[in-house]
Write a structure and sequence with these properties.
55% of the residues lie in helices and 13% in strands. It is of the alpha/beta class. It has 2 domains: 6-159, Rossmann fold, CATH 3.40.50; 166-277, N-(1-d-carboxylethyl)-l-norvaline Dehydrogenase, domain 2. The termini are far apart.
Length: 278
């Protein structure tokens, strides 16, 4: 067993709690700020073995892992830096953000005295059934990759900060984009009254795609609200000078609408859920 580390996480969301649980199971002390968190967040942190620490205590950790919604990534880095001037921790941003945003966050962290690694997580939270991969780039990547000794899968990309974020958004644009395309055309088929024929044809001529939709679309609905800002980051990553960036602006709007439908058991959520389960 390697020497135990103190790891700070910035939030106890589903992914953060999963990472925290894996690290605590391998002997790390994991701290996280819990003031003003929901009861669900408190329960996740407790179950994962994480302990509360103030924002001004995070800089005392060996590493700070930022795992938040993309729209909060930069503000989180600013909050950590402001609360921990002169900290010597390594700050790893693991969020689904553009390479440029990752580089800005790197400058914020380094301005406060911290080392920095850009990162991107591909896969679901760590569990008995599987593990995500933490892709890492930038000067601090090799150090963060050492968390493989504490139960995490890590891969170093030997490029500058921003490379891991570019890989994450490219991958998410394909996987989450496909789910959006499937949902879009199933809803269009339903409005035209040919949804049964569409699903039958997919099952015959595209059985692999039909199986993927049966798995990904029901799982997408409860997560779709969290994916809205990620789709906007992908649009910015593609660039407003390229017309295809509009695809992901539209996907963001679709996911926002589907999440609202999921919360209230609306017709659109029910339609696509029923179609892929037949």
């Amino acid at each position: 067993m390697p020497n135990p580390l103190t790891i700070a996480l910035t939030a106890p969301g589903m992914m953060g709690a999963g990472i925290g649980a894996r690290l605590t199971a391998h002997g790390c002390r994991v701290i996280v700020p819990l003031e003003d968190r929901s009861q669900a967040s408190l329960d996740r942190a407790r179950k994962a073995g994480m302990v509360h620490a103030g924002w001004d205590e995070l800089g005392q950790a060996d590493m700070i892992l930022s795992v938040v919604s993309p729209e909060h990534a930069e503000a989180t880095a600013e909050r950590v830096a402001a609360a921990n001037p002169g900290a010597r921790a390594l700050y790893a941003d693991l969020n689904a953000i553009t390479p440029e945003r990752a580089r800005r966050i790197g400058r914020i962290a380094e301005g406060a005295g911290m080392r920095f690694s850009d990162g991107g997580i591909i896969g679901p939270p760590p569990s008995d059934s599987g593990d995500p991969v933490l892709y890492l780039s930038g000067a601090g990547a090799a150090e963060v990759a050492g968390l493989r000794a504490y139960g995490l899968r890590t891969e170093v990309l030997h490029g500058p900060a921003g490379e891991a974020s570019a890989l994450k958004l490219s991958y998410a644009g394909i996987t989450k984009g496909l789910a959006a395309l499937g949902a879009t055309m199933m809803l269009a088929a339903s409005r035209a009254g040919v949804e049964e024929q569409l699903m039958a044809e997919l099952g015959v001529s595209q059985p692999g795609l039909a199986r993927d939709f049966a798995r990904s679309i029901p799982g997408m609905l409860p997560k779709s609200g969290r994916w809205v800002s990620e789709m906007r980051e992908i649009a910015d990553f593609i660039g407003p000078d390229r017309p295809e960036h509009g695809i992901y602006r539209a996907v963001a709007a679709l996911y926002e609408r589907l999440h609202d439908a999921h919360l209230c058991d609306g017709d659109e959520a029910e339609t696509i859920r029923d179609l892929v389960r037949r």
